[in-house]
Every structure is written in C-alpha cells, then in structure tokens.
Design a protein that fits this description.
- There is one protein chain.
- This protein is mainly alpha-helical.
- It has one domain: Arc Repressor Mutant, subunit A.
- It is built from six helices and two strands; from the N terminus they run H-H-H-H-E-E-H-H.
- A two-stranded antiparallel sheet has the order 1-2.
- Helix 2 crosses helix 3, helix 3 crosses helix 4 and helix 5 crosses helix 6.
- It is globular.
Length: about 150
C-alpha cells in the first residue's frame, strides 16, 4: 500500500527557495548591501546577464511582475547607485537599464555568496548530484519559458 505523503517536487523546490532566500536576506542585512532586499534580485540577476542593459518591460516580463512593480524596483536601485538608465541604441525613444560599477560589485559579491551555498550542497550530496540537479533544473526552466 503506497501513501501519498510528503512534499511533492514543486513544494521541495519552494521550501529550498524559501530557505535560501532567508539566508540571502540575512547576508544582505549584515553587509555593505543592507540597502537591498531579496526582491531586487528580480532586476539584478537578469541585468548581470545583460551588460548592454535591458528595458524595464523585458525585466518585468522575465520576473513575471508588472511593469509598475519593476519600475519601483529600478527606481530604488537607481537611487542607491546600482543601476543607471541609458538611451537604447536600437530605439532613441526607449530607455535601457544597466548595472553601474556598484551594481557589478554587488553582483560579484552575491554570486560569491551563492557559490558558498552551492559548495555546502556539494558537501552534503556530492558534486555529481549537484551538477545533475543544475542540468535538470536548467532543462525545466527552459521548458517553462516556452
């Protein structure tokens, strides 16, 4: 007789995400980036991968939030010196947002912190399992973005 108990995959991912988000929030509050919240990652992560910048509408779409919510995040990041608004070279009527030197420094620090968490995963379950998990999640993310 089988039981239908315990968290399913989606719940396991959510539980791990919640735990990691709490760790990031603690790291932010205790360091030189205490003017940021974990929610700012919705803008900072995609901008890290787009050094030429991105439009707010594109950032909002990738974060699955409204343009108004993304604009509020960008306003805060700009006021703290993490991002800047620049002309879009493809459309003079449009604006792109890109990381400043401070934003790139934060990105390096945040990725370093994330790598330390991943190193703990490796210690716990082994490098092969962590790499297999990364590959599987990348495939699932690609499927979800279609």
């Amino acid at each position: 007789m089988s039981t239908d108990r315990g968290p399913l995959l989606g719940s396991l991912i959510r539980i791990l995400h919640t735990a990691n988000t709490a760790r990031v929030a603690t790291w932010l509050a205790a360091g030189e980036y205490s003017d940021l919240q974990t929610a700012h990652g919705a803008a900072m992560q995609p901008l890290w991968d787009a050094p030429e910048g991105a439009r707010i509408t594109s950032l909002a779409r990738s974060a699955r939030i409204t343009k108004q919510s993304m604009s509020a995040l960008i306003d805060h990041l700009e006021s703290k010196g993490y991002v800047e608004r620049v002309e879009d070279p493809d459309d003079a009527r449009a604006i792109r947002v890109r990381l400043t030197a401070r934003g790139r420094a934060y990105g390096r620090a945040a990725r370093g912190f994330a790598r330390r968490i991943e190193a703990e995963f490796v210690e716990r379950i082994g490098a092969a399992r962590v790499e297999a998990l990364r590959e599987a999640l990348q495939l699932l993310v690609l499927d979800a973005q279609r």
